[in-house]
Amino acid sequence: MGTIGFTSFGFPLKTRSQNLPVVASSYTSPSPERIDSEENGCGVLKRRTSIVSRASLVSSSILGFPKEGLAVVKQGLLAGRVPGYLNLMNKTVGGGLTANLRSPAAMELAGVRSFRTPFRKSNTKIKMSSTTNEVIRCKAAVAWEAGKPLVIEEVEVAPPQKMEVRIKILFTSLCHTDVYFWEAKGQNPLFPRIFGHEAGGVVESVGEGVTDLQPGDHVLPVFTGECKECAHCKSEESNMCDLLRINTDRGVMIHDQKSRFSINGKPIFHFVGTSTFSEYTVVHVGCLAKINPLAPLDKVCILSCGISTGLGATLNVAKPKKGSSVAIFGLGAVGLAAAEGARIAGASRIIGVDLNANRFELAKKFGVTEFVNPKDHTKPVQEVIAEMTNGGADRSVECTGHIDAMISAFECVHDGWGVAVLVGVPHKDAVFKTSPLNLLNERTLRGTFFGNYKPRSDIPSVVEKYMNKELELEKFITHELPFSEINKAFDLMLKGEGLRCIIRMGE
């Protein structure tokens, strides 16, 4: 058996014979790889050398090929232009639905289970029940009252309207923000509601005006958006879109001020425009990041909120230099993501600050080199850090939202060049107090929202950091549960156990 290539994870690909049908992907990876292959006039692979995109490597499990069989295609070859073979990438079926079948998730969405290889009949048809423009009935975890267990209900999900996209959620994760508003600690409690905003899924259908997404695309829904038209979106310095900025009070879609969810005609409210605790949801196109279809959704789904927030706070806002010192206040998921950013940036000293000593051991996996528990010291923690770092840390990132920690994070950085970045959200009545001299002595205080990432423009590149093994996501995932046990994820969060719990929507 001859080796014809390697997967993006480095495993050799072997074939039982020299000939395999070609399957192409329209996604363009920023880093092409060289593999051993050659296409002849009929688009059948033999062994020689060509350059292909990593996104062209389609797992054998997708099409039901033998485990050893994996089809690859030369970059630039158009899907469906190979004589004698079925177009699997953009298949138009009954009802006019176009399905971009380039992943296991898209195959599942289309109802395709397995294929035999090779396809010799170009007129082979894929059976698919088109749901475009139809109401979809599916399961969703509905919060009927504040603080009460979610109830798995059958809900109706209306078709997407202008500039909206309906997506099938495959994996979602629980964030502390979901718990906060579920407990009705937010501004205006709104029930019944479908929570959830960290997730990964596949586009099922698109509404009027949507041109940059199509069925089958892999996407991450994000709680904030990027319309690409307002002053903020056009600015290279801001990600605070005028149209789609997070609004926790709004429980309806922007287009017509109506919900796309209902049960027996009763509207169920949305949450931050995502509502991912539902097998299907409708999201504004500006709140969807189209990502590499080879990226595992059960891993990259956590980039929809907290992890990107902490990571970007360090890489995009604090911007520590190689060999510098960084103090991280709060070692929860966001704080550890900030530490991960410091590790990626090459910081030589990453100082973790937390009142919970049990977090220190885990933090070492994220590059934290030293630990400070304020309870172990009689002097203010900013003075402790200043003594440790010969005058102050070069950078600090505050991820707790506690006003005292925010002040300490600012006052612990070095005069002349120190930069403190505030990530945590404080109580609305909290007041930040410090001496003006701390600013006059050239310390910089900055705030950040979602790590200064623009959802549509920037999140795809964060996914690529994971695909290129620069960013490690697996260590953030401490639990996995089926959708039917979603309330256990809330229990884990309330007990402070673990970092991120992945919820498998199909179970």
Mean of the pLDDT scores? 81
Q: Uncertain runs with pLDDT below 50, 5 residues or more? A: 1-102, 110-129
- Let me know the number of strands: 23
Strand content: 15-25%
Count of helical stretches = 13
Termini separation comes to 38 Å
Radius of gyration: 24 Å
Task: Please tell me what the overall shape is.
Answer: globular
Share of helix, binned: 10-25%
- Classification by helices and strands: alpha/beta
Secondary-structure blueprint:
Elements: E1 3-6, E2 12-14, E3 33-39, E4 45-52, H1 60-63, E5 91-92, E6 98-99, H2 104-110, E7 136-142, E8 151-157, E9 164-173, H3 176-182, E10 198-206, E11 218-221, H4 231-234, E12 261-263, E13 266-268, E14 280-284, E15 288-290, H5 297-300, H6 306-318, E16 325-329, H7 333-345, E17 349-353, H8 360-363, E18 370-372, H9 381-388, E19 395-398, H10 403-411, E20 419-422, H11 436-440, E21 444-447, H12 455-467, E22 477-482, H13 486-495, E23 500-504
Parallel strand pairs: 16-17, 16-19, 17-18, 19-20, 20-21, 22-23
Antiparallel strand pairs: 1-2, 3-4, 5-6, 7-8, 8-12, 9-10, 9-14, 9-23, 10-11, 11-15, 12-13
Helix pairs in contact: 6-7
Write up this protein:
The protein has 507 residues and is of the alpha/beta class. Helix content is 20%, strand content 22%. The protein contains 13 helices and 23 strands. The protein has helices spanning 60-63, 104-110, 176-182, 231-234, 297-300, 306-318, 333-345, 360-363, 381-388, 403-411, 436-440, 455-467, 486-495; strands spanning 3-6, 12-14, 33-39, 45-52, 91-92, 98-99, 136-142, 151-157, 164-173, 198-206, 218-221, 261-263, 266-268, 280-284, 288-290, 325-329, 349-353, 370-372, 395-398, 419-422, 444-447, 477-482, 500-504. The strands form six sheets. Strands 9, 10, 11, 14, 15, 22 and 23 form a seven-stranded mixed β-sheet that branches. The chain has a six-stranded parallel β-sheet with strand order 18-17-16-19-20-21, with helices on both faces. Strand 16 (325-329), helix 7 and strand 17 form a beta-alpha-beta unit. Helix 6 packs parallel to helix 7 (333-345). The chain is globular and about 65 Å long. Mean pLDDT is 81; it is low at 1-102 and 110-129. It comes from Lactuca virosa. It catalyses: a primary alcohol + NAD(+) = an aldehyde + NADH + H(+); a secondary alcohol + NAD(+) = a ketone + NADH + H(+).
